[in-house]
Design a protein that fits this description.
Largest sheet: 2 strands, antiparallel
Shape: globular
Oligomer: single chain
Order of helices and strands: EHHHHHHEHHHH
Structural class: mainly alpha
Distance between the termini: 38 Å
Radius of gyration: 25 Å
Number of strands: 2
Mean pLDDT: 89
Length: about 325
């Protein structure tokens, strides 16, 4: 499919102006941005204190609040919930309004919700420093901070989804898909992990699995999802080219349009001349000669695509052989 920047032809006649959209975003987005910057500074200070405490255990000796075991999780959670997620929320709200060509719903309510989010993060950080941490990575906030944190997020996400529903630009740009996925994924993993670890208190081995599952989902799906949304918006703007990719189900009209957009990125002999002398061309196949790669490159002396395909076949055969024999064992880490 093609994910070109939304055009004015798709927007409704009642779409607000860019100035009106930006004005509706100003209060909650700027509050989130400045709050994120403040938490970034706080997290860095806590991390520096943790480093000092690690290498000099006598530093502020006798004060339990500044021990390494409390400073480190306090710093990590301050950076994660105070800085990273708030910055992601700010960009997500702005992208929804900007790409949807719609004024942000309830900007004052969003600002109040973000204030409660910051209060919950503050309570959580102080709870960790006071010794009430749960002991689970990225979930150290005690329950009395975790519950209002989740409630605050529910309000933020609800108004974000209402804004998305009210958009005048009905076609969803690819960035909004990543934003929507991250907005819906975060409350699920947070509520599931907190429910299992803090409410039902599953046994030891399962605790480690749940905590690891939450941490990986938070970092690799939620935060990276927000980051991809930003990249898919700003990269085409920066290079002044529409974002496009090919699909086997494309119509002939779409295919022609996308080939024209992607042609400058094809691997040609001129491009290969810019590489080092012993460079090679690889491709997982099948390849479309004359589109993604020129015939003189894929059939040329620098091409190793057939050797690559042969090695892939033998590698798969070897893995299947050893799996059937039981030679390969799984492992945990």
């Amino acid at each position: 499919m093609t994910a070109a920047q939304p055009s004015s032809q798709n927007a409704c006649a009642t779409a607000p102006s860019v100035a009106e959209v930006e004005a509706s975003c100003r209060l909650p987005v700027l509050f989130l941005a400045f709050s994120g910057a403040a938490w970034l500074l706080t997290g860095v200070v806590l991390a520096l204190l943790a480093s000092v405490q690690l290498y000099n255990p006598t530093f502020m000796e006798g004060c339990a609040w500044v021990t390494y075991g409390r400073l480190r999780p306090a710093a990590i959670n301050a950076l994660t919930y105070g800085f990273a997620l708030q910055s992601a929320f700010a960009l997500a709200l702005w992208l929804i309004a900007r790409l949807g060509r719609v004024e942000l719903s309830a900007p004052l309510g969003l600002t109040i919700a973000t204030k409660f989010w910051n209060i919950a993060v503050t309570v959580g950080v102080f709870g960790i420093l006071a010794g009430d941490a749960t002991g689970f990575d990225l979930l150290e906030f005690p329950l009395y901070a975790a519950l209002p944190l989740f409630a605050s997020y529910a309000c933020i996400a609800a108004w974000a989804l209402v804004t998305l529903h009210r958009r005048t630009e009905r076609e969803l740009y690819v960035s909004l898909w990543f934003v929507l996925a991250a907005l819906l994924w975060f409350p699920w993993i947070l509520s599931t992990a907190q429910g299992l670890l803090l409410v039902w208190q599953v046994p030891g081995v399962v605790q480690a699995i749940v905590a690891g599952w939450f941490g990986n989902n938070l970092l690799q799906i939620v935060l990276i999802g927000f980051a991809l949304a930003v990249l898919f918006y700003f990269v085409p703007k920066t290079v002044n080219r529409p974002l496009a990719w090919m699909s086997m189900g494309d119509s002939e009209a779409d295919r022609s349009e996308k080939i024209a957009a992607l042609t400058p990125y094809a691997v040609t002999s001129d491009l290969m001349k810019l590489t080092v002398a012993d460079s090679i061309f690889m491709h997982c196949l099948p390849a479309h000669r004359g589109e993604e790669v020129s015939a003189e490159v894929i059939d040329g002396e620098k091409s190793v695509v057939w050797r690559q395909a042969f090695h892939r076949r033998t590698t798969i055969q070897s893995i299947l052989y050893h799996l059937v024999r039981g030679d390969l064992k799984g492992y945990t880490h």
